[in-house]
Amino acid sequence: MSTVNLQKIEEAVKMILEAVGEDPQREGLIETPKRVAKMYAEMFSGLNEDPKEYFKTVFHEEHEELVLVKDIPFHSMCEHHLVPFYGKAHIAYIPRGGVVTGLSKLARAVETTARRPQLQERITSTIADSIMEMLKPYGVYVVIEAEHMCMTMRGIKKPGAKTVTAVARGIYEQDHVKRSEILSFIQMK
């Protein structure tokens, strides 16, 4: 398991500041490399965690109908530009054999998966696949909507544009009626 090398990040940040023409020794910047290193350690803490771990503890309840946790906020870091993206995740599954997980475990899986240099598409599929592997439900449907700062702050500069990704596993892969049901619940206020 790798750990974050704070000293190496600090050195890299000093080099970036110098490369853009700044003086890393001036008052406002002198602690910046240390702050950035600590921030990256926090923001990338999911690199050393496996979202499947949250689904090792299960409960048994005679419920084989929809479970949906929606509007789970998250922040992540675009692996292409190392700038943030943020949004909401919606996770639905239909338990099989009465095997359910704690609702907070779904939010924890989102948090762990997002705290890495990431792509939104990968967050979506990682969460769905982790639930399928560990809980073995009838199906999983994960929808994520996010705003990417790499499209807002730079490049095309389109603030407010949202990216939506969805992954269907199990019965949701074929059943568009059940997917539509989830989407209607997600849109409910």
From TrEMBL:
Keyword Magnesium: no
GO cellular component terms attached to this protein's record: cytoplasm
Source superkingdom: Bacteria
Alphabetized Gene3D superfamilies for the sequence: 1.10.286.10, 3.30.1130.10
Signal peptide residue numbers: none
Keyword GTP-binding attached: yes
Reaction catalyzed: GTP + H2O = 7,8-dihydroneopterin 3'-triphosphate + formate + H(+)
PROSITE patterns, per database record: GTP_CYCLOHYDROL_1_1, GTP_CYCLOHYDROL_1_2
Uppermost EC category: hydrolase
Gene Ontology molecular function terms on file: GTP binding; GTP cyclohydrolase I activity; zinc ion binding
SUPFAM superfamilies documented for this protein: Tetrahydrobiopterin biosynthesis enzymes-like
Pathway of action: Cofactor biosynthesis; 7,8-dihydroneopterin triphosphate biosynthesis; 7,8-dihydroneopterin triphosphate from GTP: step 1/1
Homology family: Belongs to the GTP cyclohydrolase I family.
Oligomeric form and interacting partners: Homopolymer.
Protein name: GTP cyclohydrolase 1
Designated gene of the protein: folE
